[in-house]
Fold this protein.
Amino acid sequence: MEERELRELISLTEQSLLADLDIMSVNHGDPVLVENTPDGWMLLGAGNYAGVFAHRDYPDIAVKVYAPGREGWESEREVYRRIGKHPAYSACYHAGEHCGYTYLILKRLRGKTLYQCLIEGIAIPKEAIEDIDRALEYARSRGLYPHDVHGKNVMVANGRGIVVDISDFLKEEPCSMWEDLKRAYDRIYLPFMAKRPIPVPEWVMNGVRKGYRFMRYSSFLGRSS
C-alpha cells in the first residue's frame, strides 16, 4: 500500500469510523457488541476481542477495532510483525489508537471458512489443508505458537488454504485443535465426503462442536487429576 493511500485510510478510519463507533464488551466470554456502525462502513464480523469492519471505498482492507477493556491489540500487532509477508496470512499496514479504541488496518482476506464449506457443501481440497499446515510451521519458525486454529479461523480461497485469525499466536501453552481437525479430515471427510460433498446442517455442526469441547474438557480434567 502506498504511503499516501495509507494516510488517507488512517484519516478515514479515525474520523469516520472510530469517532462514531459504538462497540462494547459486555461479557469477556462472549463476542463484543457493535451497537452502531457509521455510514459507509459495514461490519464483517465480531469476535471475543474486536469487531472487523470494511469501507465501501476500500474493499480490500479490513479494520479490526478492539473493544475498550479487551486485551490483545499489542500481542496481535507483534504477531503480524513477526509473520511479515506470507501468502497464507493477512498483513498489517498500520496499528493505531484513537477515541479510546485500539485498531489494526489489515489486508482483507476473502474465502470460505472450513466451517462454512461444510455447511454449504463446498469441497475442501487436500491442498488447502497442506497450505495451512505449512503456514503454521512457518509461524513456528518465526517464534510463534499457533493457537486456536479451528474450522472458523481458517479459509479456502481459490482452492488454497489461508489462516484468518492469528491473535493468539503468542500463547505458549499447547493447543491441539488443528491436529484434531486434520485427523477428522483424514478419517472422516476424505473417505466419506470428499468426492461428493453435501451440506451438513448447522445443528449437526453445533453438536459436533459441543461434543468436541466436552471431550477436550474431560481430557484436561484427566491430565490434571
Q: What stands out?
A: The chain has a mean pLDDT of 91. Residues 202-224 form the longest helix (23 residues).
